[in-house]
Amino acid sequence: MDSVNENCAAEVSALLAPLPIFQEQEYFKELIANRRCNGIEVKHNSTNGKGVYANSEFQEDELILKDQILVGIQHSSNKVDCLVCSFCFRFIGSIEKQIGRKLYFKNLGVSSCCDGVSSESEDDNKCMKYNGNEEQCGGSSSNHNSLPQEVVSSLMNNEIALPFTDKFPLPSPLWCPGGCQEVFYCSESCAKADWESSHSLLCTGEKSESRSREALGEFIEHVNDTNDIFLLAAKAIAFTILRYRKLKADHVNEKAKQTEPKQSLLLEAWKPISIGYKRRWWDCIALPDDVDPSGEGAFRMQIKSLASTSLEHLKKAIFDKECEALFSLEIYGNIIGMFELNNLDLVVASPVEDYFLYINDLPDAEKEEAMEITKPILDALDDEYSDFCEGTAFFPLQSCMNHSCCPNAKAFKRDEDRDGQAVISALRRISKNEEVTISYIDEELPYKERQASLADYGFTCNCPKCLQDSSSVA
Ligand SMILES: C[S@@+](CC[C@H](N)C(=O)[O-])C[C@H]1O[C@@H](n2cnc3c(N)ncnc32)[C@H](O)[C@@H]1O
């Protein structure tokens, strides 16, 4: 047992215990009211735990819910492809800047290069060491279609304007108020919300409220060398600590509640994370194909040890004695497991793709004129012109949706959905009281492959299609 687990075993168990049902119901009622998606409710069923249910009828293609991110990250490898707001994940800058910085990194030989969750390649490390300094544009070209460096620099620094980009305006990037120069925002309100939600503790700039900026730097270096998911877990912990401090300050101000025991404030602060379905990361992670089943025990120990090293770095950076239980390996493992088990892709379509499609659809004469300028750029970008923002996030309502291989809803962004929110629409008519299900995988796969894909989410599917297929396979 690690020393934190020993010191506060009871608190750790309380944090991991399921929320009393009435508290859970109250929490979701409030969340649904805030999200203004009153056609649904969250209920328990005897086989699959929590699920989302329709409490009114939905027609095919109708919007069921838009769910805001509780904590989210853009994959570090994706940062070279897309410049987005670190809080709402909207694209920022300008079409020229998006293209210029992408070509700049491409010319340096840095590109998106992994699945974004595990980050172990050489290139990836280069992506992650990018520190936002875009003023200098050097590096040698590795692409025979590459543009001259001066053009790339001018695009990146908004010194030239491409035709028709005024039809695709993007918010100007705002620097992090803490001075880290690593994250950018689309607005003051996003910068403030991110600062108050988690970034004040995780910022490496001079205004950082971490215990040690140096230790924070080491934590981030370890994340970059290993796995992005640790940064997401750190955000969940920072989010809870900051909520705890705010709740405590509110209670101190309200004299009558001064006697409130510390633990209930921590439980209250942790509530939004507590509702996520969890298991320990090293227990639930699917065994990779290249690991022999005989090595499973060693593999799981290795994963646990990796999490333990990451947590040691994080403790040095942001430890808070009053929230000590959050720094136990048990909690850290469960938070990471929660991200592993839920359906959490963060996706935002690129306005650069829209821009080139717009040019392509122009009337012939205008298209020809515009393409004299845009064609060399498109050639240099190659098929990467359509790269979108990718990340991982925790969506409190979407994460309650169970999987089905014959789903009645899907996560699908409409043209107007230009930020990181999850959008769920009906695939067919859904009747009142029916469970709303989405597919976590490609549901067209044959039965065995579907079950293999779902092993990543740690369960064997019991949807009607699987129940039928399993009896015909057996
Ligand atoms: C994202 S959570 C969904 C919400 C979850 N039921 C809860 O109680 O929080 C995913 C977990 O729900 C359960 N689950 C979802 N769909 C299922 C299905 N079709 N068959 C069996 N279990 C399912 C599994 O335990 C899975 O790991």
End-to-end C-alpha gap: 43 Å
Which structural class do the helices and strands define? Answer: mainly alpha
Strand content: 5-15%
What is the rounded Rg? 24 Å
- Uncertain regions spanning at least 5 consecutive residues: 113-142
Residues in helix, %: 40-55%
Indicate the overall shape: globular
What quaternary form is this?
Answer: single chain
> What is the chain-wise order of helices and strands?
HHHEEEEHHHEEHHHHHHHEHHEEEEHH
Instruction: Enumerate the distinct ligands.
Output: S-adenosylmethionine
Note the main sheet: 3 strands, antiparallel
Overall pLDDT metric? 90
Number of strands: 11
Helical stretch count?
A: 17
**Order of strands across the main sheet:** 1-2-11
Keywords: Metal-binding, Zinc, Zinc-finger
GO molecular function: zinc ion binding
InterPro entries: ATXR2-like (IPR044237), SET_dom (IPR001214), SET_dom_sf (IPR046341), Znf_MYND (IPR002893)
Domain SET: 38-441
